[in-house]
């Protein structure tokens, strides 16, 4: 009950902040969508961070670490901590400058003006919208699931807040916040949200440590001698996958809501502290969660849904108020990014479709804001209705969206840095991304039986290991708390019991999380099944007993050798994630096709690149092209 | 200077792929697996790299080009 009260109080505060922002707002689109480009340094950093942090950073990261070990931090967090600030530094600042000079509010407005195109801009808009919509739906699904989970008094008791009501609460709060507050309301709320989930992890680690018998050192020393010891290294993460993941954060700057955040800064100096603090903030959120995920694998093994490991740890080793704060932290992460996604969708439709095709001239600024608000209302109602169906297809769509947006990054880089780039190059890259997504989707669907078979085999291996010695690592418990449930062999069940990286419908791990892939992957012998374990990852003397590694990757088309491999959760190309060829192919096409086609006019190139005219403001983009 | 910074960025990128620690389960400070400690340190290194880039490669010309615009002109343009 207490967690529910904490979360509800939090939601009321969010609603209140949104209403205050509404009273401060002006009735024009630049104010509604970009808070009049007036966001200061600290608020800019906290809001930008909230835009990109989702519930995955808390629940998904710990759940994935529970199954795949400490490598999850390097896989997703430290790579993001390096690539995202670089993107913001090199791309975000330039995007801010062209937005400020020429009045662009969306990426497509910029592309249309930069490359003197109309329909190609619409194609980029369509692909972006298709990839963003599932993200938004999954956010609501995740919020509903979290509220349902934290409102249960016991594992088998009925939820005080059922799934449908949880989704409704999240959708309502998001709608109120965006509808009334616009960008200003969202960023104010983000400040509160980011501080909450930055603090959560550290507090959780300290409190749990206090109640854990012997502390973390004793726990890990013991753990290293068991099967779960594999989680203390990267035995379950192949090097190819680890490297592939460094491409994923390129998506950050192509996500429309991230780009819009970059446009909202008052001064470019706001970017300075943001890019320096960003890696530290990522570490502050992810490190405790990944750490606790591995701790959870030792003290509470055998969870089917490992995304719930943090909640379980807190229930057993921390006071109940902390679980409430965790709930609020998760909901804040869900809503922080969801609000931005809804606003970004609204901005894109209002500016790239409604305004571009004559709505602005016909209905004016006030009419555009009215349209934007109506759109927010309609889109959240539709997203809520779809979320109720709990169709798992959206989880997959979100995973693909990360690869898709990452593969569109060369378009933005070319627009900003390469004078000779053309609209046809942009179109070729866009088509490439669309085709690759469709092909990956097809391969994924066609190989689902293989994935299921691998999951069944892993589950069987886990059941077999359950009868072998090696239960939970004794971790002690909170006085009066429940004893950790004994489960099958440490860590082994985590790999087998669940579908790694394939969270269930509405599972919080899917809430805006980066593409999670299957369990261990490894080098394959052509045409045959592959055992897990990274290349060259040998056992150190005194290390954990390895046991026989389960088969985790199988060629989809044996006649093509290892070209297309399938793990429990995902398709790879020679062991690399599809994002690698997608990004490289997109960049190559952008270059080749641009070189073969006519560049934009000299006037346009001068407008964006000439130092003599760099300071001269251009006309309203919609007026130029309509 | 530009090339030195570019090389620095590439070196930091390469350091992410710490294959030499892949199977190492040593605990740092008695409680932190070395692979986790390395990547926590990597985040700090990334922050330092960004501080260096901000100091020596900040695109100040963009800031100036916008700052040079008359406020009234920008407002009229965006309205």
Unreliable residue stretches of chain B? 72-79
Read across the widest sheet of chain A, the strand sequence of neighbours is 1-2-3-4
What is the CA-CA span between the terminal residues of chain B?
A: 41 Å
Helix- and strand-based class of chain A? mainly alpha
Could you please describe the fold and organization of this structure?
- The complex is a heterodimer of chains A (626) and B (79).
- Chain A has 626 residues and is mostly helical.
- Chain A has helices spanning 2-24, 29-34, 41-52, 59-68, 71-102, 107-115, 119-150, 163-211, 215-223, 239-244, 256-263, 270-299, 309-317, 320-389, 393-417, 423-446, 448-466, 492-497, 579-596, 602-609, 621-625; strands spanning 530-531, 551-555, 564-566, 571-573.
- Chain A has a four-stranded antiparallel β-sheet with strand order 1-2-3-4, covered by helices on one side.
- Chain A starts with a helix and ends with a helix.
- Chain B starts with a helix and ends with a helix.
- Chain B is mainly α.
- Chain B has four helices and two strands.
- Chain B is elongated.
- The chains are: A mainly alpha (626), B mainly alpha (79).
- Chains A and B meet through helix 5, helix 9, helix 10 and helix 12 of A and helix 1, strand 2, helix 2, helix 3 and helix 4 of B.
Relevant terms:
heterodimer; A: 626 residues; mainly alpha; four-stranded antiparallel β-sheet; 21 helices; 4 strands; 65% helix; disordered C terminus; B: 79 residues; two-stranded antiparallel ribbon; elongated
